[in-house]
TrEMBL record:
SMART domains listed in its UniProt record: Lactamase_B
UniProt entry keywords in alphabetical sequence: Dioxygenase, Metal-binding, Oxidoreductase
Organism encoding this protein: Galleria mellonella
Protein name per UniProt: Persulfide dioxygenase ETHE1, mitochondrial
Gene this chain is encoded by: LOC113512901
Organism domain of life: Eukaryota
PANTHER family reported for this sequence: PERSULFIDE DIOXYGENASE ETHE1, PERSULFIDE DIOXYGENASE ETHE1, MITOCHONDRIAL
CDD domains: POD-like_MBL-fold
One term under GO cellular component: mitochondrion
Length: 266
């Protein structure tokens, strides 16, 4: 009888230890899972300029940022942000675009409280100016700013190390890159930006560009290092390729640049 009692006590103790360690593991799993699951990401598209806009949010605090919004879609984007219960804190640009008018100005009027953001070297007016190594925080997340001049002086890449993703604007396009034939463009600067600030990220990081003209949506650092037909070459070869692109000027450039110098139409 005593032996039986001892055995019950023993198994109860084991069960208790088992139960507690299980709870501990579950709590740890839950918090890891919660961290992964409370990051909101949505890629949006403008078919006219083939521009990608990105909405990022913290599903717990509801703070959100939007990257490279397009004026014509400000109502769509503001509607989505409201519907999903987000509080837009920053309407951000990767650079002063030449092919479309940014939606940051209109989003500020549709979503009071949102602040416009752009790289300081762009020369554009905005509520917040960023420089290399700055951090943009929203909820429990942050974007590290990497100055990546070349397409324009003020180009920046936004990196979310926690999620292993980066928003490259026009600096790096999928199997391509931004042109360097206007707006302070410099092929040498762009090549160095990509090789020093983007290709040095881990190979598995997913890269999201501001445009794609073929319907592709994302790439990785490893893929671009291997397959980018321009940037996988030497600097000399890259400069020659860029000199011979012969692209027509963007149709909207004369309207877009003056509007984007003040971060869009209010
Ligand atoms: N046809 C479009 C403009 C296309 C263009 O020039 N895209 C730019 C980015 S927007 S300034 C670019 O850098 N392209 C690089 C490339 O290799 O295509 C228009 O008229 O808007």
């Amino acid at each position: 009888m005593l032996r039986q009692f001892k055995s019950v006590v023993h198994s109860a103790k084991v069960a208790k230890v088992f139960l507690w360690s299980n709870i501990d593991i579950n709590i740890r799993l839950m918090s890891t899972k919660m961290d992964r699951n409370n990051f909101f990401f949505r890629q949006l598209f403008d078919p006219v300029s083939c521009t990608y806009t990105y909405l990022l949010g913290d599903l717990t605090t509801r703070d959100a940022v939007i990257i490279d919004p397009v004026l014509e879609h400000a109502e769509r984007d503001a509607g989505l942000i409201k519907e999903l219960g987000f509080n837009l804190i920053y309407a951000m640009n990767t650079h002063m675009h030449a092919d479309h008018i940014t939606g940051t100005g209109k989003l500020k009027s549709l979503l009071p409280g949102a602040r416009s953001v752009i790289g300081k070297a762009s020369g554009a007016t905005a509520d917040v100016h960023l420089a290399d190594a700055d951090l943009v925080k929203f909820g429990g997340y942050q974007l590290s700013v990497a100055a990546t001049p070349g397409h324009t002086n003020g180009c920046v890449t936004y990196i979310c190390h926690e999620q292993g993703i980066a928003f490259t604007g026009d600096t790096l396009l999928i199997r391509g890159c931004g042109r360097t034939d206007f707006q302070e463009g410099s092929s040498e600067a762009l090549y160095k930006s990509v090789h020093q600030k983007i290709f040095t990220l881990p190979d598995h990081y997913t890269l999201y560009p501001a445009h794609d003209y073929k319907g592709l949506t994302a790439t990785t650092v490893g893929e671009e290092k291997k397959y980018n037909p321009r940037l996988s070459k030497s600097l000399g070869e890259f400069i020659k390729i860029m000199e011979n692109l012969n692209l027509p000027y963007p149709k909207m450039i004369d309207k877009a640049l003056p509007a984007n110098r003040v971060c869009g139409i209010y």
